[in-house]
Write a sequence for this structure.
């Protein structure tokens, strides 16, 4: 049985005390730190870029998982790796040359991730699955933290798990958006191995315990 990976999203962290929140993740059972980069064009919100990524890198030894919500990500892949990204995920939507973009990420020395928005059919992954280390299935429309989980995601995770099984790859299925201790078990049961959680972790009374609680949802 693959063990669960929890990836707290720093989008919900306290940026005035970012060091504290990174240290919290560092001392927790989370394996990954999820870093959401938004440019205000690909999604209607702007988050942060390289300086924050560098600050995260300086304060953690965890796997840094960068989720790019920017146009033309191919311009910046090498710089994200240089500044600390261990994995980079790019969206299927809006990127015309997915095959080459995924190869570019691996060639730059990072794990490659492909992200699917809630409306994108899951079967589009079939012919690039061998180039993907992580398949990120969005369970909200990207752009903002704190949104409500879209329940149809569970069936999409099952479909992805089936395709991955048929193709025989060891792709990690990651889910992102509105994840909490109430829906985590169903996602793990459907075949997810990595859950991203922002608000649920950082708005909880005890983020450290909440991370452990999410991890324990994988039976
Ligand atoms: C949304 C981001 C998410 C976000 C999740 O576009 O990709 O990673 O931080 O936040 P919550 O867990 O609050 O939905
Ligand atoms: Zn994300």
């Amino acid at each position: 049985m693959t063990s669960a990976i929890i990836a707290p999203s720093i989008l919900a962290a306290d940026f005035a005390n970012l060091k504290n929140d990174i240290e919290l993740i560092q001392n927790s059972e989370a394996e990954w730190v999820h870093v959401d980069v938004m440019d205000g064009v690909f999604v209607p919100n702007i988050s942060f870029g390289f300086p924050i990524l560098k600050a995260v890198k300086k304060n953690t030894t965890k796997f840094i998982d960068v989720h790019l919500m920017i146009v033309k990500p191919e311009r910046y892949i090498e710089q994200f790796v240089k500044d600390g990204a261990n994995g980079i995920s790019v969206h299927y939507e809006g990127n015309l040359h997915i095959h080459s973009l995924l190869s570019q990420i691996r060639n730059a020395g990072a794990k490659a991730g492909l992200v699917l928005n809630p409306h994108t059919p899951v079967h589009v992954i079939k012919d690039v699955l061998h180039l993907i280390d992580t398949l990120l299935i969005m369970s909200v429309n990207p752009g903002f933290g704190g949104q409500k989980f879209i329940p149809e995601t569970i069936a999409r995770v099952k479909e992805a798990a089936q395709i991955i099984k048929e193709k025989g790859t060891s792709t990690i299925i990651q889910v992102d958006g509105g994840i909490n201790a109430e829906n985590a078990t169903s996602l793990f049961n459907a075949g997810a191995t990595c859950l991203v959680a922002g608000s649920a972790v950082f708005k909880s009374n005890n983020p450290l315990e909440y991370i452990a609680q999410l991890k324990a949802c994988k039976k």
Residues 9, 34, 36, 67, 176, 196 surround zinc ion (ligand 2) (CB under 6 Å). Helices lie at 18-26, 50-58, 77-82, 98-107, 153-167, 184-190, 199-202, 207-215. The chain is about 30% helix and 20% strand.
